[in-house]
Amino acid sequence: MCGAAIPSVQASDKEYAIKAGFLYNFALYGRWSSSFTERDNFVICSQDHNFIAIANRVLGDRNVKHKPITTQTISHSAASIQQCDMFFVSANTQENWPTINHQQHQNTMFIGETEHFIKQGGHIRFFLASGKIRFEISPKHLKQSGLSMSSKVLRLGRVVER
After folding, report:
1. Helix extents (H) in the chain
2. Burial 96-129 (b: 16+ CB within 10 A, else e)
3. What is the rounded CA–CA span in Å between residue 60 and residue 79?
4. Quick one: CA dihedral 86, 123, 159, 112, positive or negative?
5. Do 104 and 18 touch, CB atoms closer than 8 A?
6. What DSSP state is assigned to residue 4?
7. Name one Pfam family in it (predicted).
8. Which of 10, 11, 86, 88 has the smallest C-beta neighbourhood within 10 Å, fewest atoms?
């Protein structure tokens, strides 16, 4: 396997800022089905307060398909996740990930940063390779959730089918 897993330690603000930028691009090049048109905002959620604070600073004035981006710190309850277009699972909050029934959350893109994230049903996973943040992506898991990703993004990441 290429690249090491991001350790379960507090990520730096710079690392979270870069990941927030990646999420923005995933949002621009991702395709959602019905629920996307039902919301007034594009909602990025996480249980990690630090990530949300940084994402808000980085993405606060951005739009996705003419919708302003909103960031929210939420619990991992089904009702909370339903309001999210994207849900970021940090290494600091990954202990709750296996308890989330992500298959019931159509139209929510799940992005994480722990080694087995995609094997556990996630859509996109960040990892470090040669000191740079890279990502792997599962088009199969995206499709099962009513999502898809542009081939432009797929070419930049490592496509996995797990």
Report:
1. 13-29, 34-38, 49-59, 78-82, 139-144, 151-156
2. ebeebebeebebbbbbbbbbebbebbbbbbbbee
3. 24
4. positive
5. no
6. B
7. DUF4154
8. 10
- Residue 121: phi, psi to the nearest 5? 105, 0
Q: Please choose, from the candidates 97, 32, 99, 136, the residue with its C-alpha nearest in 3D space to the C-alpha of residue 43.
A: 32
Provide the sign of the torsion angle of the four alpha carbons 153, 159, 23, 4, taken in this order: negative
Per-residue confidence in pLDDT tens, the chain, 162 aa:
344 443 434 568 999 999 999 999 999 999 988 666 577 899 999 999 999 999 999 998 999 989 999 999 987 666 788 889 999 999 888 776 666 665 667 889 999 999 999 998 899 999 999 999 999 999 999 999 899 999 999 999 999 986
Q: Where are the domains of the chain?
A: 13-94+105-157
Q: Tell me, what amino acid is at 73? A: T
User: What distance in Å separates the CA atoms of residue 18 and residue 58, rounded to the nearest whole number?
Assistant: 9
